[in-house]
Structure formats: C-alpha cells, structure tokens
Amino acid sequence: MVAAAQAGDADLLGSCFAKDAPGEFQAFRAGTATAKQIDEFKEFAQEAKVGEEKLDASGEKAVVQVQFKRRAEELNVVKTKEGWKVLDF
User: Fold this and answer.
1) Positive or negative: CA dihedral 75, 12, 14, 4
2) Using one digit for the tens of pLDDT, what is the confidence trace for 30-40?
3) Domains plus CATH for the chain?
C-alpha cells in the first residue's frame, strides 16, 4: 500500500484495501477516488517507513507499524486469497 500510494498508482492502491475496509477507503477500492484524493494520499505516504509486523495466533491477521511523515500508524491487515489487504489504520 505504501509503495502504491507513493507512486500515485490508483489501481494498485485500490487493490491494497480489504472489502471490509472503512468507507474512507472504498473510493480507492472502487476506482472512484478523485485526483485530489490520490494526490493527498500520495503526499501522506511520502517518506513512509514500514516497521515490524506482528501476526496474530491464527496467522490470518497482522498489525504492521508504519512511520508516515506526520505520524506513526498501525496498519491492520488481513490475509485473503488475493494476498494481504489493509483493513484499517
């Protein structure tokens, strides 16, 4: 997700979010995000550093530490048949 956001790749970014992701990410999933939304997310993700991840006992969910330029976040991700997807942060 971080690399897709940094590149401003709307299609790739949309594929990074889980179906159950909150509404604020659904425009990315649906491919309806505006150029402004994409640019704002791109700016937010610039210089982001991905840190450690912690898997839950099932191995199906994880929390990934990411230091964005303005703040630190914990990305909650879930394993799907298409790969790991962001649920929320």
Assistant:
1) positive
2) 999 999 999 99
3) 2-88 (3.10.450.50)
